[in-house]
Specification:
596 residues; 26 helices; disordered C terminus
Amino acid sequence: MKMTFRKLDGGIKVCLYLVVGTAVLYLFLLSIFGTTSVGPADLTAGTGSGGEKAYFLKDVWPVRLLILAAVFCLIWLLRRYFLPAVRIRRHWISAGLCALFILTGTVLILSTQMHPISDSSKILRIAEGMAEGSYEEFRRNEGYLWRYPDQLGIILLYYIVTLLAGEKNYIVLQFINLFAAAAAGLAAGKVAEMIGGYQGSWTGIGTELLYYIFAPFLLFTMYIYGTILGFAFSLFAFYMELLLLKRRKWRYVCGAAVCMGVAVVFKTNSMVMMVAMLLFLVYDGIMEKKKRYALAGIAAILLVQVLFTQGIHGFMSMKSGCEISKGMPKLAWVAMAMGNGGPAPGTWNGRSVSMFEEAGYDYDETNRLAMESIRHSLEDFMDDRSEALLWLGKKMAFQWNNPAFGAAQVLRNRPGAFPMPEPAESLIYGKAYYRMAEAMNVLQTVILAGCMCFFVLENKKKPREILLPAVAFLGGFLFHMAWEAKSEYVFPYFLMLFPYSVRGTGLLLDKVSSIFQRRRIPFGRSVIVPACLLTGGILLLAVLYPTRLIQYTVALHDEPELCILYKETIREQVQAVEMQKQERNIEWEEEPYMEQ
């Protein structure tokens, strides 16, 4: 029986390596064949025409691979000649990186002070209204919180901050994001060390550095929504569960449960992360002889989730005097995500809200309409499978292959408290933003390549818990095939891959170093199998490249003329930003700013 469970455990782990590695390979192919960007819907009408559209731009994949090889060579040189010469203790390096990240974020926040817009502005106004005794948005049917009660947790945080900070609450919330992101970088370093199996190694420092230099991670701290907080507390929860599964200490049960509960409070989509934690505890409970830790972990996570949800709903209901609804059915979002409209397939088109209104705000009737819409969409997909494949390919590329992960969309067009400094404005609107996006495009490819190395080269006999963040990524990858398409929604799952990328890059460079040390190419199984897989994959890709399977999934490109027009429009937009900046400077000198 023990041998059977051991074989089953090994089989499940190999299966997870294969499935998650395949998903990462798909994203890697997307990244070398093209790049997704968002621009004006009508390029001929100029950048101020209104509306947005996704553009699928072609990359020269041999150039991308050469750049990737050059980056790996540079990292190898740093590992071989620079790191051995470093005499500073690693914990001081870690603290220095964290402090530099906080300092950079502080300068950025204080130099821009941009007011929130769209949904983040809406929920902030609701919190401010609560502080003034207004509960209009809790009202039945038409109220924002009647439709979206999932926002109650983040609104409660905003309400508390509003009571403490007053009118500058959005600045405080940005700093909360900043410190949470900095702490997440430190936690990610610890997670990477546990994945690699070496405490105090350069793997942890490398992972922390990767988080801090990935520009969208910093830019999203200025976006006062639950994205950063949900990710940060999910990562803290993962770290606690990894410690629980490794050390079997009761204190980690409570830590994992509370952190996961807070993550879901701030961002409901963090329930995907929670499911990953629960699945791993079930997995551990089946495979391990001592099941009490797994059972306690499952019970604690579910109990804390219920207590937090019911507690927040009860407090908000008592405070507002209004009933807390079930909100719009989740199927309405799935139905919307299976349609067209918006900048890309599966993006927001208002269909979920219109179904809710059409059903007279009735939950069951909305579910019926959503199921009917989903059935029609599936029938259309079956009638034209090629178009269905292209539709899904564009939806996935829109979400996962935008190297800025929607940072421009969540930051642009936000009024500031004073004229924005030129460097900050360039980073958000101008030349610096597009240079940053190009750099992140390269870095995204490097990260995914490192991840592939991990899932191919890592020892499959290592403890199962090191795959916990990978399963969370896989959950997000599958979930967002059916959910509303948005880059910012998949961003936390992409961040979960960073520890694997650093570890995988180290494994690859260790193989290279061993070749140099032996002065001959090794022919062991650990080298032959990855080499055969790589060679076979390249040959298969070359054979399938002209087919729809590739052209509709990873080699997604708009017509060359449209790509050229897009680039010309962006160039004009950057020039317009520079001219507008000069004009605004003159206006600001002549007329004092009145806060909007």
